[in-house]
């Protein structure tokens, strides 16, 4: 039985695992799917975390809502909607800043689960063998045409196909330690991929703010530079999901990219960074009391700022990249078509079609 190892339990990796499972049930694929995730939870940049003082409340720290751009992914969207993992999110609930026009015809969705988009990713992964807290150290191509993969925790796995969906900086580190040399022009194109950086902060407030929050008449809000130089986005996570407010109101804050770039490497200044962000939040929402709890997260790799451009076809984008044909070593993820749910799904579908062959219909 063929075995494929998918590295990264974000949207691309999870969707790929689901596509391969569905192909298996329709007898188009007879392989086993393994998924490794170096973090202690699944979700990738759609992960949710809880508060130290209240483990019942989880907040979406990455993606806040999903906007439909491609009808080609309606099959997966419909699957997620049918299983209660996605629900409609009206554009009128998003307060735009001056440079962003409202999009009343846009189709947005969110996950109504307490775990947010992480529950959606877990649903897609439900039939795969998933191992968290397992990153890839390096790999070797064996003499009999397989790939032996060595994990950061000392585990060794030999598989027939390897798919790396992790961010390109992680991929480059793995390739270097594996002494695997792509063509110079491909390596240069990978090294040219760039990501934005930002901070995310989740605040938990008690129920005393209920009326003030309702009076705002928005669930999410984009903040322009003329309003504040630090904060870029606000979202009442509790209201977005429609979950119970019994444990309080959770507010998610994303900083702007300039602030993220300026302070990302100041690892010893978490308290100062949090205090700066909090002052901006209090200026924007002066009715807020002191929070019950806060959680700061560094998005060192946030959205793709400069995606991969195939040197063999510089005028077009590729959804995934085959680094080695036999055994197959494939790179996938939002580094290729750009960040966004649709692009992650398109990358997963393209990768599945490579693994399954042209008759797969993907």
TrEMBL record:
Name of the featured protein: Amine oxidase domain-containing protein
All copies of domain Amine oxidase, residue ranges: 116-354
Pfam families referenced in this protein's UniProt entry, alphabetically: Amino_oxidase, NAD_binding_8
Annotated signal peptide: none
UniProt cross-references to Gene3D superfamilies, sorted A to Z: 3.90.660.10, FAD/NAD(P)-binding domain
Taxonomic lineage from the root: Eukaryota, Sar, Stramenopiles, Oomycota, Peronosporomycetes
UniProt cross-references to InterPro entries, sorted A to Z: Amino_oxidase, FAD/NAD-bd_sf, RNLS
Gene Ontology MF: a single term: oxidoreductase activity, acting on NAD(P)H
GO terms under cellular component: extracellular region
